[in-house]
């Protein structure tokens, strides 16, 4: 992976550690005292140096939850601060993946403190609904028609900002997968919110109940599925008999990218590259030609088009240069970063 930097010198490759399956207990123990934290920092630093990584992404899911301790919230800050002190010696990146449920944010994260030490905070705006709810729900609803709905991308991001996350450090996580459901009654005409069993159905490759990669979804739904668009959540869903898939497609991904850009966030990230349509099977099956990584390319294209539209609007309204030119340069610089991030991701993906 790090060898890709020979081909793309501007590419940054970070080591990620943690994840849902890792749980929280071991990280809670490690972060609980200075000695074990230093052991972790030394180990991570040695690994980064040995394999020529550019930084570390912490995916502790989650401090103070899932077997953790209430003290994790502040111990996580200690860990990040001490990592920052070491990483600054080498110019390494330090990032973290954050859960976005309000109860998780409140219990796990001291956002202002973390913001001081992290380069970026990756908001995992997905898995907001699934078969565990026992009813159909969008995996990553952009918004909701219910004013008190806290499980949406919009609410999650705005809550993190309200807690003190700087927009320039906040990255919106996008899912390249969907959630599957089995309806209790397939005659139910109101699918979104309809009762389901406690388990979904698996994809042919990922083989996990309730989960299906976009590469699996787009091939499956081309075979007799009915596809709908939900205006409330700004996401699609597909139905065949008692089976339902809620997911993100090119349209919904584009809407989320525009949302992130409107809030001047640092960028977007995806989970995960390997579940995009990496072989272009979906377009081939529909007779539309050959193209791979459709969702990744949608991210890049949306960023480019949105920036172009904004620049055209700015040019139209700006009739003279003012002393505020220095201030107006800042968002333009941020916009350039958006383009670079998107293009690197697409090129990187195509090379894998």
TrEMBL record:
Every copy of the GH18 domain together lies at 1-306
List the Pfam families: Glyco_hydro_18
GO-annotated biological processes: chitin catabolic process; polysaccharide catabolic process
Q: Can you state which reaction this protein catalyses?
A: Random endo-hydrolysis of N-acetyl-beta-D-glucosaminide (1->4)-beta-linkages in chitin and chitodextrins
| Alphabetical keyword list | Carbohydrate metabolism, Chitin degradation, Chitin-binding, Disulfide bond, Glycosidase, Hydrolase, Polysaccharide degradation, Signal
Molecular function GO labels: chitin binding; endochitinase activity
Instruction: Output the InterPro entries linked to this UniProt entry.
Output: Chitinase_II/V-like_cat, Chitinase_insertion_sf, GH, Glyco_hydro18_cat, Glyco_hydro_18_chit_AS, Glycosyl_Hydrlase_18
- EC no. given is 3.2.1.14
Q: Which GO terms describe its cellular component?
A: extracellular region
Q: Does the keyword Signal apply?
A: yes
Q: Which family does it belong to?
A: Belongs to the glycosyl hydrolase 18 family. Chitinase class II subfamily.
Q: What is this protein called?
A: chitinase
- Protein's organism: Cryptotermes secundus
């Amino acid at each position: 992976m790090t060898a890709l930097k020979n081909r793309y010198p501007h590419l940054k490759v970070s080591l990620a550690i943690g994840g849902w399956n890792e749980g929280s207990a071991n990280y809670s123990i490690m972060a609980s005292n200075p000695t074990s934290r230093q052991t972790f920092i030394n180990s991570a630093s040695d690994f980064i140096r040995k394999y020529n990584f550019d930084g570390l992404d912490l995916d502790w899911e989650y401090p103070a939850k899932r077997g953790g301790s209430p003290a994790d919230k502040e111990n996580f800050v200690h860990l990040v601060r001490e990592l920052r002190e070491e990483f600054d010696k080498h110019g390494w990146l330090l990032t973290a993946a954050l859960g976005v449920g309000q109860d998780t944010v409140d219990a796990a994260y001291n956002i202002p403190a973390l913001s001081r030490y992290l380069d970026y905070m990756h908001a995992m705006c997905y898995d907001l609904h699934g078969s565990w709810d026992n009813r159909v729900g969008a995996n990553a609803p952009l918004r909701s028609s219910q004013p008190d709905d806290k499980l949406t991308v919009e609410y999650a991001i705005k809550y993190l900002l309200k807690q003190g996350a700087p927009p320039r450090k906040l990255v919106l996580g996008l899912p390249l997968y969907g959630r599957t459901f089995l309806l209790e009654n397939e005659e139910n005409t109101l699918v979104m919110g309809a009762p389901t069993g406690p388990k979904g159905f698996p994809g042919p490759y990922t083989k996990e109940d309730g989960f299906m990669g976009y590469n699996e979804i787009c091939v499956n739904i081309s075979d007799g599925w009915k596809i709908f668009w939900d205006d409330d959540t700004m996401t699609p869903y597909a139905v065949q008999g008692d089976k339902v898939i809620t997911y993100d497609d090119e349209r919904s991904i584009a809407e989320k990218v525009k949302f992130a850009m409107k809030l001047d966030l640092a960028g977007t990230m995806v989970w995960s590259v390997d579940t995009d349509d990496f072989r272009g099977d979906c377009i081939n099956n529909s007779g539309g030609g050959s193209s791979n990584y459709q969702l990744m390319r949608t991210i890049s294209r949306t960023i480019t088009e949105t920036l172009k539209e904004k620049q055209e609007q700015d040019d139209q309204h700006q009739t003279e240069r003012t002393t505020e030119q220095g201030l107006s340069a800042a968002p333009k610089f941020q916009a350039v970063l958006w383009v670079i991030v998107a293009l690197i991701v697409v090129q990187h993906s195509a090379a894998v």
